[in-house]
Amino acid sequence: MRQDLLVNNEIYHILNKSIAGYTIFNNDIEFSRMLNIIQYYLIENPSVCYSRFIKLSQQDQELILLDNYNRKKIVQIIAYCLMPTHFHLILQQLISNGISKYIANISNGYARYFNVRHKRQGPLWQGKFKNVLVKDDEQLLHLTRYIHLNPTTASIVSDPIDWQYSSYKEYLEPNRNNLCNYHDILDIKPGVYKRFVLSQKDYQKKLSIIKKHLLY
Fold first, then answer.
1. Each residue of 148-203: pLDDT tens digit?
2. Quick one: average pLDDT of 116-127?
3. If we measure between CA atoms, which residue out of 10, 11, 209, 18 comes closest to residue 129?
4. Which helix (H) or strand (E) holds 50?
5. Cβ within 8 Å of residue 153, ≥6 positions away
6. 133 DSSP β-pair partners
7. CB 134 within 8 A of CB 140
8. Whether the Cβ atoms of residue 85 and residue 23 lie closer than 8 Å to each other
9. What is the DSSP string of 15-29?
10. Other residues' Cβ atoms within 10 Å of the Cβ of residue 4
11. What is the DSSP string of 71-137?
12. DSSP at 187
């Protein structure tokens, strides 16, 4: 699907992969940087780019954040998961071209940071991000489970609660200070959601292994 066909108020699963399977999130510092970028660019036309923002004094940062707070959001995050070589986002588009602008901002912002940090040049991402329209609540619910299980499927952790770089904990602790805003869309209790996710953990991992063998 072409990016210019994304429709306002619809929800999409977004996937962006690194070039050649390159590891782009190597440690807590890099994962945290991406999460900060993801949060910063939720609004339309931020006052300054994030790389400049973090170099400002605390007072100036507070003024920028106050100004940004009054600006219109371009997307709403329903769920997310960062992996060493890619990221998943479930986004609702709030303004025309909002998702394309948002992904460009966060992808370019992180690429600049990563290239400077690692003294490298060239593209970091595979190309244009992939997107799939989420057609109903059932598909959305299963999709959140799929991306929250990515770290266990990849054998990075044994329990999704141990992965700090996804929204899984936000679904289990809805009253915490969260990046996601899904409550108006998905009505599910934390305990029910936890059982729903964990019931699929072993099957999704086995299925991933089977698919990998079929590809070789």
1. 999 999 999 999 999 999 999 999 998 777 899 998 899 899 999 999 999 988 76
2. 94
3. 18
4. helix 50-53
5. 204, 205, 208
6. 12
7. yes
8. yes
9. EEEBGGG-----SHH
10. 8
11. SPBSEEEEEEEEETTEEEEEEEE-STTHHHHHHHHHHHHHHHHHHHHHT--S--B-SSPEEEEE-SH
12. -
User: For the domain with range 3-214, which CATH number is right: 3.40.440.10, 3.40.50.920, 3.30.70.1290, 3.10.20.90?
Assistant: 3.30.70.1290
Instruction: For the chain, give the mean pLDDT.
Output: 91
Position with higher pLDDT, 93 vs 216: 93
Burial (CB count <10 Å: 0-12, 13-18, 19+), residue 120: exposed
The CA distance from 138 to 104, in Å, is 29
Collapsing DSSP states into helix, strand and coil, what is residue 204? Answer: helix
β-pair partners for 93? 75
Sign, Cα dihedral of 4, 53, 68, 90: positive
Q: Are 34 and 121 in contact (CB under 8 A)?
A: no
- Distance, CA of 142 to CA of 90 (rounded, Å): 12
Q: What predicted TM-score, i.e. pTM, was given to this entire model?
A: 0.90
Break the chain into its structural domains and give their ranges. Answer: 3-214
CA end-to-end span of the chain: 28
Are 10 and 133 within 8 A, CB to CB?
yes
42 and 102 in contact (C-beta within 8 Å)?
yes
pLDDT tens for 81-96 read 999 999 999 999 999 9
